[in-house]
Design goal:
193 residues, alpha/beta, Rossmann fold, 9 strands, 27% helix, globular, Orotate phosphoribosyltransferase, EC 2.4.2.10
């Protein structure tokens, strides 16, 4: 089991934790942002963190690991490598809905692990969860490297993270950084809000 100290060390070394004035995918504002995509630019970071996550689901008989594109494509691969199973990803179609494409298919009863690099509201994961459940698969759990919910999210299946990190955020109208007007608002994530 990896220690929180080691995880924080990796996140700092990888340049994951950013400080400034950020608009999150949820629309809320924050003075910190976790750019977890940076974990996957070097296998020395992703291998250790994804192995720690895979270890938490190792006894579940996972047959496939699925992550929402784009953020969890590499993560699904790395976690599946440690679990010695298949992996693929869900992606948005032209209508904006998540779908399994490219010949990726889950079958009824298949044991599926869903992964996401960071969970804040769980929106993308919930979409993939519904998609996979509708196909009749058995979702054994959801795993993330970083849980930003403070353990407050309930997906209806086990949710495990390598680390839980609390990052303060505000509705735009209550943002102290906007009121100060000193820092430019930046949207660093993959989705346009």
């Amino acid at each position: 089991m990896i220690s929180n100290e080691r995880v924080i060390e990796i996140l700092k070394e990888a340049g994951v934790l950013l400080e400034g004035h950020f608009r999150l995918t949820s629309g809320r504002h924050s003075n910190k942002y976790l750019q977890c995509a940076k974990i996957f630019r070097n296998t020395k970071y992703s291998e250790e963190l994804c192995a720690a996550l895979a270890e938490q689901f190792g006894s579940e008989g996972v047959e496939v690991v699925i992550g929402p594109a784009m953020g969890a494509v590499q993560m699904a691969y790395e976690v599946s490598r440690h679990l010695k199973c298949e992996n693929f990803f869900a992606e948005r179609e032209a209508d904006g809905k998540m779908a399994l494409r490219r010949g990726f298919e889950v079958k009824p009863g298949m044991k599926v692990l869903l992964v996401e690099d960071v969970v804040t509201t769980g929106g993308s994961v919930k979409e993939v969860l519904e998609l996979v459940k509708a196909a009749g698969a058995d979702v054994v759990g959801i795993g993330s490297i970083v849980d930003r919910t403070g353990g407050k999210i309930d997906f209806g299946v086990p949710f495990k993270a390598v680390i839980s990190v609390e990052v303060e955020s505000w509705e735009p109208e209550n943002c102290p950084l906007c009121k100060e007007g000193k820092l430019e608002l930046v949207k660093p994530g993959s989705r346009k809000v």
